[in-house]
Amino acid sequence: MKKITSQSDYQQVYNESVEQPEKFWAEVAEDFVWRKKWDKVLEWDFHKPEVKWFVGGKLNITENCIDRHLKDKANQTAIIWEPNDPTKTSLHITYQQLHDEVCKVANMLKNNGVNQGDRVCIYLPMIPEAAYAILACARIGAVHSVVFAGFSSGSLVDRINDAGCKVVLTSDGSLRGEKKIDLKPIVDEALQNCPGVVKTIVFKYTNSKISMQAARDVWWHDEIKNTKPVCEPEVMDAEDMLFILYTSGSTGKPKGMVHTCGGYMVYSTYTFQTVFQYQQGQVYWCTADIGWITGHSYIVYGPLAAGATTVMFEGIPSWPDMGRFWQVIEKHKVNIFYTAPTAIRSLEKAPLSFVHQADLHSLKVLGSVGEPINEEAWHWYHEHIGRSQCPIVDTWWQTETGGIMISPIAHVTKVKAAFATFPLPGVQPAVMDEKGAELFLNGVEGRLTIKFPWPSMARTIYGDHQRFKETYFSTFPGKYFTGDGCKRDEEGFYRITGRVDDIIIVSGHNMGTAEIESAIDEHTAVCETAVVGYPHNIKGQGVYAYVICYEAPQDEEKLRTEIREMVSKVIGPIAKPDKIQFVSGLPKTRSGKIMRRILRKIAEGEMNNLGDTSTLTDPAIVDEIKNGAL
Ligand code: WTA
C-alpha cells in the first residue's frame, strides 16, 4: 500500500484510486489475513442497488483484529479502559488477554445456543465486556446489534424485534458520572414484548438489586466460569453480515443498517490508519460510545485491526469536573484524540484553568466527528487543546458509510477551519443541484452524493431492501444520497452544512423528528405535534416541539415536564425536547401537509422572512405561533 506523505502524494493516490478503484482496493486488502483470497474485487449496481466487495473472499475479522498481532504484540496493550470514577483503577488489556477474553465470551455464546448467523443484541455500558461481546459475536459469525445503553425499553423493543435477536447481553446497571442507572429492569420491560428472545446473559457490574427470570436469565460470571480461552474463528464470506446498527430515519422507524465482514474490515482499518496517521506504539482515544458507529469503527474494529492501543472511556466529560477529558489525556499520554463538536463546545464554556491543569503535550492529532464543527469551536480546540500544533481532522461520515469519507489526513493534507476538506482515496463525491444535475465546478453548494461504491458502505436495511433503495438511491438515481447538504469552495474544499431531511443532530446523536413526534403524541393530553431542530450553542441542534393539546393546558410547566418524561420513556433521555410551545394549530397546506419550513424559521427566531404563506389553510395561525415563540 502506498504511503501518503504529502499533499501531492494525496492527489496522486486519489487520482489512481478513482481511475483504477479495483486495483487500489485490492492493494489495500492485501494487508489483511484472508483464509481465501477474493475472486473478484467488486460487483456493483447502484440502481438495484447491489454492492459486493472482495467477492468469494473468506476471512474472520477477529483474526485480523487479534490473532495476527499475537506474534509480535501479545503483551502490547490493546485496550486501555478508563473507568467512570477516576479514583478506580484503569485496566490495560493486552492483545493476548483480549484474545483470551473474546474466546471465552465466544464459547459462552455458543454454550447458550448462539449459532452463526444468529442476531445478538448487546445492551451494555462502556465496559471492556462490551468490546469482548462485539468481537465474540464476530468470532463465531453471529451478527451483533449494539443498542446504545441510553435508549429506553421502547427503543430496545423495536430494535430487538426488527433484527430478530435471539439473545440479549446486558448488565445489571451502568455508571455515568454520579448516576447509577439500572439497565436490567429496562431489558425486563422490553422483553415482555420480544417473544423471540430466549436468553439474557447478565454481567454483574453495579450490584444493583435486580430480578432474574428463571430459564431466560443467566449470569455472565456463571456462564463464563468454565469456558476455554480458545475458540477457532468461524470462516466467513466477505459478504456475510457482520453487524446491524440502527440509525434514525425520516419516518418513525429506525433503520437497521447492515454491514458485511470483508469490506467493512478493509475500509475501517484503512481509514483509521490514513486519517489519523497512527504510528505503532501511540495511544489513541476516541470518546464515542460503543453503541454508535464511531465506537464500532474507531474504538473497536479499525484500531484493533491496525494493532493500535485504543482507549475506552466509561465516563462523561463533566464529572467529577470539566477537566476530566484533559486529565485522561495526561494520565494515558494520549497521542490522538477524537471527539464530537458538542463536547468541545461544552468544554469551551468551562474555565481554561481545567485545560491548563493537565499536561497535553502528548497530543499529536485531534479529530472531530458527528456534526458540523463551527469555526469558534474549531479554533478553541486547535489553540487550547492542540497548542496550535495538532491538525484537526474534521471527519465526515455516517452509520451508513461505515467509515470516514471526507477528512483531512493528519499532518499530510491541508486543514481549514470548519471544513471536512477532501474526499479520502476511493471516495467519489458528487454535489447535486435540486434538479438532479451534478455540479462539476468549484464554488458550488448542493446535496452531497457519492457516485462510486466504497468497501464499507451499508449493503441494505435489515429486512427492508426497498426502503434502502428509496432512502438512498432514488433521489438521485445511480448515486448514493447522503441526506446532507454541502459546499465545495473555490479551492475544492468540502464543507458539510447539515441535514437536508427530517433528521436532526442533537449533541451528535441522530434523531428523526417523526420519531420524537410520535413519542410526544403518546401523552393523552396531546392531539398533534410537529418537531423541528433549532440552533443550540452547545448541542448543535436543540429539539423544538410545537404541541396541540385537546384542551388548553391548565399548568403548562407541568405538562412540559410530563411530555419530556414521555419522550424519555419512549425513546430515551437524549431525545427530550428543549422547547415545547403549546399552539392551537399548525401551519398546513390545503393537502394537509405541515409546512415545516415555517416552523423551522420561527424556531430559529427568524420571524420575518417566512416566505410564501398564502397556500396555508389558515395563515393566521402563523402569527399566533410567532407571538408565542420561545
Ligand atoms: C453528520 C456519525 C458535519 C452528518 C459518524 C451525517 C457531520 C450524520 C460530520 C451521520 C462532520 C457526521 N461534519 N456533519 N464531520 N460527521 N456528520 O450516522 O449530517 O451518527 O449525515 O454517523 O452526522 O451521523 P451518524
Please provide a written account of the structure.
The chain has 630 residues and is α/β, with parallel strands linked by helices. It has two domains: 7-316 and 395-486, ANL, N-terminal domain (Rossmann fold, 3-Layer(aba) Sandwich), CATH 3.40.50; 507-627, ANL, C-terminal domain (GMP Synthetase, Chain A, domain 3), CATH 3.30.300. The protein is built from 20 helices and 31 strands. The strands form eight sheets. An eight-stranded mixed β-sheet has the order 12-11-8-6-7-14-15-24, with helices on both faces. A seven-stranded mixed β-sheet has the order 5-4-17-16-18-19-20, sandwiched between helices. A five-stranded antiparallel β-sheet has the order 22-21-23-25-26. Strand 1 and strand 2 form a beta hairpin. Helix 7 (153-163) crosses helix 8. The protein is globular and about 75 Å long. The protein starts with 6 loop residues before the first helix and ends with a helix. The model has no long low-confidence stretch (mean pLDDT 96). The structure holds 5'-O-[(S)-ethoxy(hydroxy)phosphoryl]adenosine.
Please give the structural blueprint:
Blueprint: H1 7-19, H2 21-29, E1 40-45, E2 50-55, E3 58-59, H3 61-65, H4 70-73, E4 77-82, E5 91-94, H5 95-111, E6 119-123, H6 128-140, E7 143-146, H7 153-163, E8 167-171, E9 173-176, E10 179-182, H8 184-191, E11 199-203, E12 217-219, H9 220-224, E13 236-237, E14 241-247, E15 255-260, H10 261-276, E16 283-286, H11 293-305, E17 309-313, H12 324-332, E18 336-339, H13 341-348, H14 353-356, E19 365-369, H15 375-385, E20 392-395, E21 429-432, E22 438-439, E23 444-450, E24 460-461, H16 465-473, E25 480-488, E26 494-499, E27 503-506, E28 509-512, H17 513-521, E29 526-536, E30 540-549, H18 556-570, E31 579-583, H19 596-603, H20 620-627
Parallel strand pairs: 4-17, 6-7, 6-8, 7-14, 8-11, 11-12, 16-17, 16-18, 18-19, 19-20, 30-31
Antiparallel strand pairs: 1-2, 3-13, 4-5, 9-10, 14-15, 15-24, 21-22, 21-23, 23-25, 25-26, 27-28, 29-30
5'-O-[(S)-ethoxy(hydroxy)phosphoryl]adenosine (WTA) binds at residues 247, 292-294, 368-372, 394-399, 420, 482-484, 496, 499, 505, 510.
